[in-house]
Model the fold of this input.
Amino acid sequence: MEKYPWQSDVWQRLYEARERLPHALLLRGRSGIGKFDFALYLTKSLLCQSPKTDGQACEICPSCSWFSQNNHPDYRLLTPEQDADDDNGAESVKKSGKKSQISVAQIRELSSFLELSSHRSDGLRIALIHPAETLNASSANALLKMLEEPPAGVVFILVSHQPQRLLPTIISRCQKIDMPIPETAVALEWLKEKGLKDPAPQLDYAGGSPLSALSDAEEGGQSFGNIIKLLLQGAKLDPFVTASLCAAQGMEAATCALQKWIYDLLACRLAGEVRYHAQYSSALQALT
Done:
C-alpha cells in the first residue's frame, strides 16, 4: 500500500479533517488510479497509535504491526473474494472460482463485529468495502441500515470504480471524495520510476490510469499488439485469424481491446482525437 504523488492534496484535506471525519467516506474514481491503496494507507493512519506529524502511520506501534499482518482487531475489509457462497451467482462462482458480489452474510458479520467495542477506549473501528458496487441488493440494503444509524466510533470507507451502480441513498450518506486522475507528466514520471522505459503507449492504452498501465507492462507489455496489427488492416482484416487471437487472450480482455479500438475510431471520426492508441493516430485517421 502507498500514497501516490497525485493524491497529496486529497491526503492533506483528510489529514486536516482527521478529528472531525464523517461516519462514511466514498472514494470514487476510475479504475487504476490507486483508490484502494489510498484507502488502506488512510485506514492504517487512522488506526495508528502514534501517527507522525503529517498524519502518516508510524509503522512501529502495535496497531501498525497488527494492520501489516492483516489481523487488526478494529478493522474489517469486505471484498467479493472473501466468501465462497454467493447469494445469486453460485454457477458463475463454480466457473471462475471467484465471487462477483459482496453478500448479505458478510454485511451481517460486519454488523456483529461493530457491536463490539474497540480494543482501545478511544479507538476507531474501520470497515473498508471494496469495490462498493459489488454489493448486491440485499447486502446494499443491509449496509444502508448501518449507515442510517452508524455505531459510535466507526468509520465506513467505501471504494468505488462505478459509483453510479450504488444505491442513491448509500451515496447520500457518505462524504464523497473524487479521487484524482494524475496529469500525464506526473503519471509518466511515476511509471519511469517503476522501471518502464517508454511508458507512454501503456498509459494511453490504460486510459491514463498508471496502475493499470504498470500492471499491463508487468504482464508482458501491451498484450494486444498482434490484434492491433490486424485491426490496422481495416477492411482487409481476416476475421477468422482475429477471432483466434481474441480467444487466446480471453474473451473478456479481447472485448475490452476491441471496445477501445472502436472508441478511438469514433472519437477520431467525430472529434479528431484519440484516447487509447495515440501511437496509431495517423492510421486511425486514415481508417476513418
In short: Confidence is low (pLDDT under 50) at residues 83-97. The first strand starts at residue 24 and ends at 28. The CA atoms of residues 44 and 68 lie 9 Å apart. The beta strands are 24-28, 75-78, 125-129, 154-160, 175-178.
